[in-house]
């Protein structure tokens, strides 16, 4: 009996030892993986997937008269929506496959718009031509000052790439023109302003070098840091274009600020955010910041590519075509197409881009968030006006884009009339909106109509202007 007990003890001990070794080996694999995704990431080697094309580096400029037109291409670099719906600005570049930015294709460097054929926008399923647009070329003769704030992620996950970032930062400073402002900040859990927005290149460079090792930490409060860096522009003249460049892996584990706050602040203060990610990144928040603020997203897979990105950002502020027009009012996804006619070329040049004016920002809305739609009814009635149909196109596109969202459809009134009348009117209007969306194929379970009457005003009902704000159709996110 005693011998059998000893044998069972040995068997159990071996099982426990084997389990311990398995757990230990798994933890070592996990630790190794974590290190490879952060501290050991080496920008001196190209980590790009084999089938992924390298970005073309645009290193010089040439006039259209000196270019092989068969090698031309056009790209929409970014779309500025800060002044929507009054104006849209599209920044484009024309270039060739050998790395030349092509110039002299729009006023004042060219006397007319002979190269620019057409622009149209596609909204939901409707394709609309833009009848009136302007194109203005910016080039080497334009000495416009820029204010550029560099925001560098100094959290633990970025340790392996900081040497390359710092080298690129010094290159960026060296490209600075005398009239430009450059500021530099770093962040982890805390925010460190290394260099205020200054114009003296020597002072910027020397101050950066003395503070280069300050501000390292484990956590990342990326959103909070971006908000603080935007505040640095407060003393910059309003006429000076403002650019914030964010270098980060996109991870944020400490901020209290939401992405929508950043986007609202950037749009209200005319700040354009360029984002640069490295290797193993959380790409989505970086793309959202750049897409919604008229900036551009870059991804670096090697040290040389990072250096090229620094140069491309600065060059993109100097050589480009600015297209401006009044856009169609549609609060949803806008697909833009620009077509150019080039003499002696068989086909047209076409560039495509997208901008989003929907009330919900991808990845940054949550349950209980609310938004309104400008739905118009007949006076004291639940009958929908024809001009409201475009709003239903917007809502349908939104609900199709986010198929997991459920909404409360709210009807609200002002305080004119009895409480009973307003309650019934608000309920009838909420039901009318719901029925119109059901006609368009939205599932009934995703819509919950509710009338609030006069019980939930946005503002006091003390003027006609305020009462008009309280007469509204509002939507609340119930589920996502």
Explain this structure to me?
The protein has 480 residues and is an alpha/beta fold. It has three domains: 60-141 and 322-356, Immunoglobulin-like (Sandwich); 147-315, von Willebrand factor, type A domain (Rossmann fold, 3-Layer(aba) Sandwich), CATH 3.40.50.410; 370-479, OmpA-like domain (60s Ribosomal Protein L30, Chain: A, 2-Layer Sandwich). It contains ten helices and 20 strands. It has helices at residues 2-36, 162-174, 201-211, 222-230, 259-268, 283-291, 303-316, 389-401, 419-439, 464-470; strands at residues 60-63, 72-80, 88-96, 100-103, 116-123, 126-129, 134-138, 147-153, 181-187, 191-198, 242-247, 271-278, 297-300, 320-325, 333-340, 349-356, 370-373, 406-412, 447-451, 472-479. It has a six-stranded mixed beta sheet, sandwiched between helices. Strands 2-3-14-7 form a four-stranded antiparallel beta sheet, with no helix packed on it. A four-stranded antiparallel beta sheet has the order 6-5-15-16, with no helix packed on it. Helix 4 (222-230) packs parallel to helix 5.
């Amino acid at each position: 009996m005693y011998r059998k007990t000893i044998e069972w003890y040995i068997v159990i001990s071996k099982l426990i030892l084997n389990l311990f070794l398995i757990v230990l080996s798994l933890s070592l694999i996990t630790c190794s993986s974590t290190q490879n995704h952060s501290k050991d990431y080496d920008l001196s080697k190209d980590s790009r997937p084999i089938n992924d094309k390298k970005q073309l580096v645009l290193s010089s400029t040439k006039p259209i008269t000196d270019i092989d037109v068969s090698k031309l291409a056009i790209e929409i670099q970014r779309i500025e929506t800060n002044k929507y719906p009054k104006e849209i600005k599209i920044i484009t570049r024309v270039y060739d496959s050998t790395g030349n930015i092509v110039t002299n294709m729009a006023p004042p460097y060219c006397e007319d718009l002979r190269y620019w054929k057409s622009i149209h926008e596609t909204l939901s399923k409707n394709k609309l031509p833009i009848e009136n647009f302007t194109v203005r070329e910016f080039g080497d003769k334009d000495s416009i000052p820029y204010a550029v704030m560099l925001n560098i992620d100094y959290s633990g996950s970025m340790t392996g790439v900081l040497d390359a970032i710092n080298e690129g930062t010094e290159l960026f400073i060296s490209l600075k023109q005398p009239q430009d402002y450059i500021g530099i900040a770093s962040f982890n859990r805390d925010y460190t302003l290394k260099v205020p927005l200054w114009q003296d290149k020597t002072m910027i460079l020397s101050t950066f070098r003395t503070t280069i090792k300050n501000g390292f930490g484990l956590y990342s409060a990326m959103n909070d840091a971006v908000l603080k860096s935007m505040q640095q522009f407060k003393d910059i003249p309003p006429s000076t274009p403002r650019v914030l460049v964010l270098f980060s892996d996109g991870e944020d584990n400490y901020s209290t600020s939401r992405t929508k706050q950043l986007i609202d602040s950037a749009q209200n203060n005319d700040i354009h955010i360029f984002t640069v990610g490295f290797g193993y990144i959380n790409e989505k928040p970086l793309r959202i910041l750049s897409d919604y603020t008229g900036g551009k997203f870059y991804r670096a897979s090697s040290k040389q590519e990072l250096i090229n990105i620094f140069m491309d950002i600065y060059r993109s502020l100097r050589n480009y075509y600015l297209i401006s027009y009044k856009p169609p009012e549609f609060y949803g996804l806008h697909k833009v197409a620009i077509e150019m006619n080039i003499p002696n070329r068989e086909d047209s040049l076409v560039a495509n881009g997208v901008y989003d004016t929907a009330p919900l920002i991808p990845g940054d809305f949550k349950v209980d968030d609310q938004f309104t739609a400008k739905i118009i009814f007949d006076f004291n009635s639940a009958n929908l006006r024809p001009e409201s149909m475009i709003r239903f196109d917007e809502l349908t596109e939104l609900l199709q884009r986010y198929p997991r969202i459920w909404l409360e459809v709210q009807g609200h009134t002002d305080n004119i009339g009895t409480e009973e009348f307003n309650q019934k009117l608000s309920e009838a209007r909420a039901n009318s909106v719901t029925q119109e969306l059901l006609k368009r194929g939205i599932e009934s379970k995703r819509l919950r109509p509710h009338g609030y009457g006069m019980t939930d005003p946005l503002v006091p009902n003390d003027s006609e202007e305020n009462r008009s704000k309280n007469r509204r159709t509002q939507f609340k996110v119930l589920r996502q």
